[in-house]
Amino acid sequence: MSASDGTTFSGITTGVDMRDKYQTLTTGQQISTKIAYAQFGKQAFFKAIGLEAFGVDAVNDVDVFGAAMFGGSKPTRMITFDSGHSMSGPVNATTGSSFHSTRQSSYSAEYVAGGDQWIYAWNRIDTARFIPEMDVLDNQSKKLQDIMAETFKEAQGSHVRDLALGILGASSAPDYGTLGPNAVKTDLPNLISVTQAQTVGNIAMAANPWWQNGVKEITDAGGGGEFDRPLLLRRGLMAIMNDTGEYAESAKRFLLLCNQGFWQTYDRLQYADLNRHQDVMVKSASYDAAGITHKMFNGSPMMWDTNATIPYGGTASTDFVTGIDVDTYAISLHTSCNFKLHGGWEGPRAHDQYRQHNLLISTRYNPYITSRRTHFCVHGVPANAD
Asked: Which of 39, 86, 211, 215 is the most buried (most CB within 10 A)?
């Protein structure tokens, strides 16, 4: 390339999708009810969110769920549908896992009105798969296996898993610390944390006590007597729940999410009560009807999830429980870009140098809280030895 003064420039222009790379998917887009239903029907935490948002009938029937989520009715809580502009790069990746992409490498999750700003710094999780055309043709002609159907099923499962990891903050989430929700502090361990020195939602917690969640450290669960009854754990959990429930914006509806060790320690308490006092194991009628394994504490359902992650600043190798105020925590899904199945399998085009079948599933989402002080976390509980 030459300038008018005779100067010659050389080099490679960046940001251009060359024909010798994988094509960017450009086919029509459709929302996948099946993938969304799997997302809110597999793991305990997300099934509870689906129940709170769409009702018990929706989590038990895919058709009812599809009508509730995509039929125009609004969720009651914990899920919101919002819109806004965002940008992300082309899907020129061959990774076997999902990956996060974001807009112009900017991680400020805040609302900025006017100008050329965006409404949300959306997290976008992409699950891409590529199959060489020759592999597809070989398997179709020899009837060995439907490689496209099998890969599609695997991609769906990966998308459900990786989105759950991103929202719950598991360290194995794709691009967790680079482009994922940890970078914008929207995963659960950052939204409800032990350390109160971060900037979450563009609000500095240290300088704004009203933006700090409740924290309770319990280093002795108690126990002994009455079938090993951990009363100190019960008293501490009751205290922090009562403290956060006293704020005006709290409706005192909590969803208690814990790790397996905390779940088993609390199970000792329920077992002791059942046998010592002949009590009945209390259950939530709606959670029971939805098939969600849970216990009850002070009127709130408790569950453990394999991907539940210790709140930020908590002590490693100890047990914990996070108290989520269901009225001020939500996962915002982009109105037209959630659980998108971009045309299914797109076949190769005539000019492609590498002839491949391409698949892309994507979800734009942003977990958030509107009142931080109505949430709490209990940490430091001695690891359960059961």
From this structure: 39
